[in-house]
Amino acid sequence: MENKVLSVLKVFVIILFTISGVSLGYIFSDYYKLPYNNNIIAILGGFAGILVGALIAIYLAKFLRWFLPTIDQLFSNFSIPDLLIFFFGVFVGASISLLFFPFLQLIPVVGEYLKALLIIVFSLLGAYISGKKRDEIKKILTPIKSDKKSVYKHYIIDTSAIIDGRINEFLQTGILEGIIVIPGVVLSELQKIADSTDYLKRARGRRGLDTLDTVKESKIIPIEVVETKKALLSVDEVLVEIARQFKGILITNDYNLTRIGRLKGIKVLNLSELSYALRLQVLPGEDLNVAIIREGKEQAQGIGYLDDGTMIVVEDGKKYLGRSIEVTVSSILQTSSGKMIFAKPK
């Protein structure tokens, strides 16, 4: 592409100098009243223009081959708004310099040169100031949005969050405002799980599809299915890429995807982390009501659970099997898999 542009530019320069040579030939012969035929002088001028134009075109092409990549490298780190602000500063600086032109006309000889110098100085000064103050200029030029609801956030949901089932209850709270984005590859993965020959996988896949149907029918938040044209290696890469494109929040229950997304600068909401953060906080000495549903590993122990799934081991609780009793928390054990509470009947 670059070579084609340079070739066209060479031809244009040669044609321009040829026309200029012919024109100068006519002007020269008329001005000096030469005895030769004007057409001969014009033809000679045209040939001279071709030679001069060819030489200039060759050196101009060499210059542009160096200049264009340099400019490209120079401006590659600047965004379009930054470039617009830069040229805006140059324009304002050059415009301000015009105010001094009436005074410079009073200076003989060097006045015209000072005009050119003043334009260059004020243009550079305008570019420098606009570059320094570009963040403030962006704020001024950016329209203020009074209606906060007009700015929609995008929440990208993966397969693990859909299968988990808790996403439905989470969305029903209305805490999320925006658009739910589901990549097409996630739906394909969910369908494969729902069609699996394994009973448990099939049940989980169908539960995920039921969850999506429930969310869609509730209309509490719009759902958008997005197909990706870019060929990526894995579903996780698709999720991260879409989250980056939409500048959205990735909702998942996958530990590894959570880590990868955060390492790549994506905001990630992990449902398990959220559930853990919202667990009931209890302290030793507090009283709780718990249903004893099974025996413990140790003799006479009873096992119960809080609403958030936290296990409670009740000493001498075996005799209360199938009943709800008041217990007093004696100690709390934090493990890698969660929290375990030990209690005694009150």
UniProtKB/TrEMBL annotation:
> Where is the signal peptide, in residue numbers?
none
Q: Which residues cross the membrane?
A: 7-28, 40-62, 83-107, 113-131
Sorted UniProt keywords: Hydrolase, Magnesium, Membrane, Nuclease, Transmembrane, Transmembrane helix
Query: Which co-factors does it depend on?
Result: Mg(2+)
UniProt cross-references to Pfam families, sorted A to Z: PIN
Gene Ontology molecular functions: hydrolase activity; nuclease activity
The record's section on InterPro entries has: Nucleic_acid_metab_PIN/TRAM, PIN-like_dom_sf, PIN_dom, TRAM_dom
Q: State which Enzyme Commission number(s) the record gives.
A: 3.1.-.-
Q: Start and end of every TRAM domain?
A: 281-342
Which PROSITE patterns would you find in this protein's record?
Answer: TRAM (PS50926)
Class of this enzyme: hydrolase
Against PANTHER family, the record matches this protein to:
AAA FAMILY ATPASE, MEMBRANE PROTEIN
| Protein's name in the database | PIN and TRAM-domain containing protein YacL
From what organism does this protein derive? Psychracetigena formicireducens
